[in-house]
Amino acid sequence: MPSPQSLSEPDRREVAAWAADCAERVLGLFEAEAPHDDRARDAIARARGFARGERDAAGEIRRRFEAGRAAKSVSSPPAVAAARAAAQASGVAHMGAHALGAAAYAVRAVELSAGSAVEREGAAAREIDTQVSLATDGARRALASLPRVGDDSAGPLGPGLLSTGRLGEIIASLQAGLTSTGSS
Questions:
Q1: Where is each Imm-5-like domain found (predicted)?
Q2: How distant, in Å, are the alpha carbons of 120, 121, 123, 162, 163 from that of 117?
Q3: What is the DSSP string of 57-87?
């Protein structure tokens, strides 16, 4: 039985577009430090291609780690988080829950690039609100079907990096915003 974090292929295609949008918002943070490294940009393009039905899941599953390796080519925390956002977006072809990972890493990149703790908090909250507003009704529906962060052990939202610490807090905020009735 597949994990509830997998989502159906049509739902993965729907949330891949949103994940690519989220990751692309912070791509400049990566490219400012690694202007000649196209792995993060390529991962976002592949996520968009998958969303449009131009790429198949099997091919993308094989390539999903390329942008993650790009995170090792930069040193600033915002650039690392931006590369990881792109990597998570490309991982949506494999498992839909990676869309929340893409969004969370993008929020983290924005947060880390802000100044003081107060500025970081505000920047993160604004980025979460923006990402929630970017989600289509189809993406919201698919993302709402995912288990809450930390509730299911069979995937990226289970125990581990995405469910703990600041990333887990961000994903919980994203999930709350995406499922609230008052969101647009």
A1: 6-121
A2: 5, 6, 10, 21, 22
A3: HHHHHHHTTHHHHHGGG--SHHHHHHHHHHH
Nearest to residue 128, comparing CAs of 182, 177, 181, 179? 177
Confirm if 152 and 3 have CB atoms less than 8 A apart.
yes
Q: pLDDT tens digits for 60-101?
A: 777 777 878 999 999 999 999 999 999 999 999 999 999 999
State the CB neighbour count (10 A cutoff) for residue 29: 24
CA 58 → CA 11, 64, 144, distances in Å? 16, 10, 25
Q: What is the amino acid identity at position 70?
A: A
Q: How far apart are CA 51 and CA 24, in angstroms?
A: 14
